[in-house]
Specification:
Elements lengths: L3 H30 L5 H12 L18 H4 L10 E5 L16 H8 L7 E4 H6 L10 E2 L7 E4 L2 H16 L5 H9 L1 H22 L6 E3 L8 E3 L3 E5 L2 H9 L20
Antiparallel strand pairs: 1-7, 2-4, 3-4, 5-6
């Protein structure tokens, strides 16, 4: 008869073999059921599940995770994750093409951001982008009977909103701004407030964690923040190229049988 401690060692060995086999089987099944799974994803999921203040608790949207718009476009530039390092120019009171006082060149500098405003995406990309009201989506004519939808990049709208805020600060330099303000100040402030909140939501969503450090400066008693930080910036070239290749220059006419929303979303 084997001594008790011998049986215990053998049992531990069997348990170890079973554990290793289970881990291997689980790994194989994970790759079959979720080909994109990796250690970092599993680690991140574990952290989020164990975190009492998980991101899901801060958001009232429970749909599937969204992916980058460029990842949805079948003829788009890869996965949309091409970046470059760039140092911000945050020095106070310097001159740039985007600052006032306003000139024709100032407006031209801003307007380059929306040289392409709208474009067409296929049905697959449209639905994967999780539109709020897909039943009322605007369809555009495409060759070969394919169904395509009108769209724009969120960054285009966000930059246009920032331009609106710039114009609001120089209202006396833009006749149309002054005229609209005098005609209906409530509507004018409504548009400006809309842009403020769009940019607020974007900044809150991204929560840039780039470190802003401080310097000692002559004739300044307190530490001075240095906003000339190095950032990881998305490359615009591919996005602009894709938009230009699929641009929709003329807005489509509304069909008589179009599904319509009761109010502006």
């Amino acid at each position: 008869m084997d001594p008790p401690h011998g049986r215990k060692k053998r049992n531990q060995g069997v348990d170890l073999i079973i554990l290793c086999a289970g881990a291997m089987i689980g790994s194989v099944l994970t790759q079959i059921l979720s080909p994109g799974a990796d250690w970092e994803n599993c680690r991140r999921i574990g952290i989020e599940l164990s975190n009492p203040v998980a991101p899901a608790a801060e958001c009232n949207f429970t749909g599937p995770p969204k992916v980058s718009s460029l990842e949805l476009l079948p003829t788009g530039p890869g996965d949309g994750r091409e970046f470059r390092l760039s140092r911000a120019n945050g020095t106070y009171n310097i001159s740039t093409p985007f600052k006032g006082p306003t000139t024709a060149s100032t407006d031209q500098a801003w307007q380059r951001y929306w040289r392409v405003w709208t474009f067409a995406v296929d049905e697959h990309a449209y639905h994967l982008s999780q539109p709020e009201h897909p039943e009322a989506g605007v369809q555009v004519t495409a060759g070969g009977g394919r169904r395509r939808y009108l769209a724009t990049f969120a960054a285009t709208h966000q930059l246009h909103c920032l331009y609106n805020l710039f114009r609001a600060t120089y209202r006396d330099s833009y006749d149309e701004e002054q005229t609209e303000f005098e005609r209906d100040p409530v509507a004018w402030h409504g548009r400006v407030d809309h842009c403020v909140d769009i940019i607020r939501q974007k900044l809150e969503c991204d929560r840039d964690t780039t470190l802003v450090t401080y310097n000692w400066v002559k004739r300044k008693r307190d530490p001075v923040a240095n906003f000339n930080v190095v950032r990881r910036c998305a490359v615009w070239d591919e996005m602009e190229r894709w938009g230009a290749e699929h641009e929709v220059q003329a807005m489509p006419e509304k069909p008589e049988d179009a599904v319509q929303l009761d109010r502006i979303p």
